């Protein structure tokens, strides 16, 4: 059985900061909509049983602190399988579909489930750090916000020997099919006086 590849989805400011006191330091509705679209869109919509509008769903994998930091009205994340990693809690928080003690256990189990399509890792910093170093991490969706924010959680450094930014102009011709598949806007975005850009890194 092949284990599925994972993709990371994150947004960071200039210092690679991703959060402060369990919350996002910025408010960007269009970036949040992008996150929702990427993590919700099923790429392999193999026909399911008659009458099922969509049998497959993507899984969003996160640490328990990240899950608890989602505002209660948005928790669990809709139309996605909510997966929490924790070595300390023994019972899944309300709304969580699966609780795993380790990344390995999560990837192995989710890979065996025919109703799960893509696996998206959505935080926090320790989970990102572990995931980015794993060979099954294939893509990193990283929104870079061109501003400074006070943060206490950070996105791990991206090893450019391992990953390349395929939204870079020089690489676009080669990887245009992937950019188009995810419908990634390539120009600089602005909202609430902030400029930001969507980047997609792929494992070499």
TrEMBL record:
GO BP of this protein: dihydrofolate metabolic process; folic acid metabolic process; one-carbon metabolic process; tetrahydrofolate biosynthetic process
InterPro entries documented for this protein: DHFR (IPR012259), DHFR-like_dom_sf (IPR024072), DHFR_CS (IPR017925), DHFR_dom (IPR001796)
UniProt key word RNA-binding: no
Family membership: Belongs to the dihydrofolate reductase family.
Taxon lineage: Eukaryota, Metazoa, Ecdysozoa, Arthropoda, Chelicerata
Cross-referenced CDD domains: DHFR
Protein name according to UniProt: dihydrofolate reductase
Organism name: Euroglyphus maynei
Domain DHFR: 5-203
Record's signal peptide: none
């Amino acid at each position: 059985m092949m284990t599925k590849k994972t993709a990371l989805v994150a947004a960071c400011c200039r210092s690679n900061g991703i959060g402060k006191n369990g919350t996002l330091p910025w408010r960007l509705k269009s970036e949040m909509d992008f996150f929702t679209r990427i993590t919700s869109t099923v790429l392999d919509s193999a026909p399911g049983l008659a009458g099922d509008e969509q049998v497959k769903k993507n899984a969003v994998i996160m640490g328990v602190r990240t899950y608890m930091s989602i505002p209660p009205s948005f928790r669990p994340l809709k139309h996605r399988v909510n997966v929490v990693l924790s070595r300390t809690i023994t019972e899944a928080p309300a709304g969580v579909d699966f609780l795993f003690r380790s990344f390995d256990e999560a990837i192995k189990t989710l890979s065996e489930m025919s109703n799960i399509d893509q696996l998206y890792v959505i935080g926090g910093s320790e989970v990102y750090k572990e995931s980015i170093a794993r060979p099954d991490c294939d893509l990193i969706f990283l929104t870079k916000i061109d501003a400074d924010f006070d943060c206490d959680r950070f996105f791990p450094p991206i090893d450019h020997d391992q990953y390349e930014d395929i939204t870079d102009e020089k690489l676009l011709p080669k990887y245009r099919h992937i950019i188009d598949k995810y419908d990634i806007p390539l120009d600089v975005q602005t909202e609430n006086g902030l400029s930001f850009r969507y980047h997609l890194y792929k494992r070499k």
